[in-house]
Amino acid sequence: MMNVKQILAPISTEMDEFEVRFRQSMRSKVPLLDKITHYIIRRKGKQMRPMFLFLTAKMLGETNDKTYDAASLIELLHTASLVHDDVVDDANERRGFFSINALWKNKIAVLVGDFMLSRVLLLSIEKNNIRLLEIVARAVREMSEGELLQIEKARKLDITEEVYFDIIRQKTASLLSTVCESAAVSVDREDEAVNMRKFGELVGLAFQIKDDIFDYGDSKEIGKPTGLDIRERKMTLPLIYVLSKCDIKVKKELINIIKNHNEDSKYVKRAIQIVVDNGGIEYAQNKMNTLKEEALKCLSSIPESDSKTATIGLVEYTTQRIK
């Protein structure tokens, strides 16, 4: 498997330039806002979305100003959604750092998210990137619908696999499909836009299932507590599979833990064990690998290049990463 350094090699110049442009896109005359956006930039994660965007663009054509604009629009949208998510979830941490709402309270966090969404609109209009705005606006709609669908269904423990995929397709995969579609459009490859959208969606679905699987792993190895989804009564693929396939006695025990003992570490550990013992992880891994292979088929007609090799490497990395 390629490491991150090897994956980044074809786009290292673009990633450096993007960092500068993204910082500029968040500038404000309000000192408090500048302080908060500086904090956000400092604690950024792996930057998977910009990596996918620049690799996809380079695989299909030549990166240009429009490609950088697309990367900034999507990263602004993604950051705004995370800031708002932390408020909705009342979360105090994000990637090991204090969340914006923990440091500056909910009202300021909501306004910061709103500011970033306004930057998405203004940057699109300033540069006349109406086509990119259309793609990004669709992602905002889908992410909101996915989140609301999850809230609506979360109260019930009889959620089907079909509904689960509807939720993660909108809530998670829609952003990566937007990334890859925007990349194609930015290099004037409208002929590949639909195919790249499908590619991004499939990778996004596989990526989310990988996250589901992490919740049943070794917390020391992963670097974060496991069993969080069970504590939050979140219906993920391993759990959905086991509840639909196991015998009635096991099902009753599992439902009892999720409903009545989801705060107790001993019971949560038992629930994890039940899911593992009944093939939930194995099933989810098989689904994830099927989606990954489908995604890679979308690239079969694209000519070989360093960028294509690195894109395949990034897909493999997202499904094989250990944290």
Care to describe what's here?
This protein is mostly helical and 323 residues long. It has one domain (4-320): Farnesyl Diphosphate Synthase. 76% of the residues lie in helices and 1% in strands. The chain has 16 helices and 2 strands. It has helices spanning 4-8, 12-25, 31-42, 48-60, 65-88, 100-126, 130-154, 161-186, 193-214, 219-222, 228-231, 237-245, 248-260, 265-277, 280-297, 306-320; strands at residues 93-94, 97-98. The protein has a two-stranded antiparallel sheet. Strand 1 (93-94) and strand 2 (97-98) form a beta hairpin. Helix 4 (48-60) runs antiparallel to helix 5, helix 5 packs antiparallel against helix 6 and helix 12 (237-245) packs across helix 15. The longest helix has 27 residues, at 100-126. The protein starts with a helix and ends with a helix.
**How much of the sequence is in beta strands?**
under 5%
Task: Classify the secondary structure makeup into a structural class.
Answer: mainly alpha
Query: What is the architecture at the second tier of CATH?
Result: Orthogonal Bundle
- Flag low-confidence runs: 219-224
Overall CATH class: Mainly Alpha
> Largest beta sheet, briefly?
2 strands, antiparallel
Order of SSEs: HHHHHEEHHHHHHHHHHH
Work out the radius of gyration: 20 Å
Distance between the termini: 15 Å
Q: Please, how many helices? A: 16
Helix proportion range: over 70%
* Secondary structure: number of strands: 2
Strand order of the largest sheet: 1-2
Arithmetic mean pLDDT: 85
What is CATH's topology name?
Farnesyl Diphosphate Synthase
